[in-house]
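Dear Dr. V.,

Thank you for agreeing to look over these. As mentioned in my earlier message, I'm a first-year student in the group and I'm still getting used to reading structure tokens, so any feedback on how I've presented them would be very welcome. I ran two proteins. I've put each sequence directly above its structure. The first is here:
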Amino acid sequence: MMKPIAALCMAAWMAGCANPAQQSADALAQQAEAQIELAKLRDKEARAEYNDQAVYLGLIGRMQQEGLYYASLAHIDAYQQRFGTAPPLQLMRAAALRETGQDDAALQAYRDLLPTDRAAAAHHGIGLVLGRQGDFVRAAVALRQAATLDPVNAQVANDLGYALMRGGALQDARIPVMQALQLDGSSPRIVSNAAVWLWASGKRAEATAMMQRASMPEPTRAAVRKEGDRVARAALAHERSPAAKPLAMNAARNTTP
């Protein structure tokens, strides 16, 4: 018969001194349960995000900011099936179509937005599509209309200046280029565009000083100089063409596609 003291020690050992293998198994089981609960919580939070219209729209916008345009198209379809459509969603769809190379569909999507309160962004988008296609005259038309509707938008002014430069209207580009620079001089893209204009206009010392102040790396400076030379050639060809009309006059016409 086991003595009382021995029995007590045996009970204590069984209750609190389990073998290491059993302790490890228990710890793993607890960890697995915690991970399952965490996954459930995250899934619940994700469902809550996708069930909230404003939050879901924000998530789609974030996808596009990160360049996930193909994924954003899928989520735009999902959002539309659940909540219907609205101009902000239509604008995101147009941008996704543009950035995935679906130019015709993007142009139509932007045209559909022209009667809405997103008209400025729609004209801007049309200008971007046409510029990528190399039609800088019509791009400038659309971008000038965007600038008229949204005059303090630095990106619109910058894109208008670039379209004018590429179309050969170098001097017409000066005002929108400099407006963009003063509206948002911290944007590397805008500073680069201003440096291109200076270089193409023969103000090479000023262009070089601007690039130095912006601490542009040498590959970027070389690209600016190369683009400036191309713009200068386009301006010269434009001046020499007897049939050429000032791009500013063309851009004043209401010929948005």
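The second protein is here, in the same arrangement:
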Amino acid sequence: MSEAITTHGLGKTYGNQAVVQNLDLRVPRGCVYGFLGPNGSGKSTTMKMLLSLVRPTSGDVHIMGRQMQRSTRRDLLGEMGSLIEAPPAYVHLTGRENMRLAQRLLDLGDGQVNRAVEVVRLQDHLDKRVRDYSLGMKQRLGIAMALAREPQILILDEPTNGLDPAGIEEMRRLLKQLADRGTTVMVSSHLLGEIDRTATVLGILSEGRMLFQGTREQLFARSVPDVLIDTSDPDQATALTARSGAVRDGDSVRIPGLDHAATAHLVAYLVDRRVAIHGVRREDQSLEDVFMDLTGGRGL
């Protein structure tokens, strides 16, 4: 099996409201899978269904090639770690006491606990009470608790929530390191720039449906950025190309939706009508630009 997580027709309905609809996830092993979507798109509900925290209305979940069901649930959840919503720590206890509770609950060895703490670089703060931790330290403690069982899959819902830039950078490095070690990391975030710098595979959800799933390169190949034509006579160039949706943009003409062949044809058309062309370029696109285009302008 090349996938750590697959779903087939996964759906969740509350009353008459379909929160997740006919979802076919494909999360490759050993990758950072960026799970994106506007607020209310069904990301958290999907993650909870993968962890058996919410029962699907339809479809099924497969973890490492085995279907999640009553007879396999205990074994499969033993292969998974998660941080959903708030870190599951007792704030009146120290970090060390919280880790010992997790150790006893999960029947783990000292080595597993120590390695998890070292991975998130929290070993120098274990004797502080969690109430005195920064938000970043609480997030790292939650991830250490999830990592202690040495899971093959780690599911994280907004792990950078509330972190300062240094904490976000640290989280990015951690997720990449985990994937490099063979852990499959599925992470949702509203910080598209961070996902763009971290994830190797992307899934984009909107209104409970999967709009896109694949690599960053495949996503950007689906989006055609605007063409900008620099000219000494932008008014004439705009008038001549108005049927193509052209608008003036400073000393340039902006034209949406042109592929390479159409761009070459349009430039030749302008030159034939004696419009001086100084340059032709495509607008740079960020993941946020492509995301907004794909979701119809709906924000995260």
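From my reading of the second output: The domain at 3-221 is CATH 3.40.50.300 (Rossmann fold). The longest strand covers residues 3-14. Does that match how you would interpret it?

Kind regards,
E.
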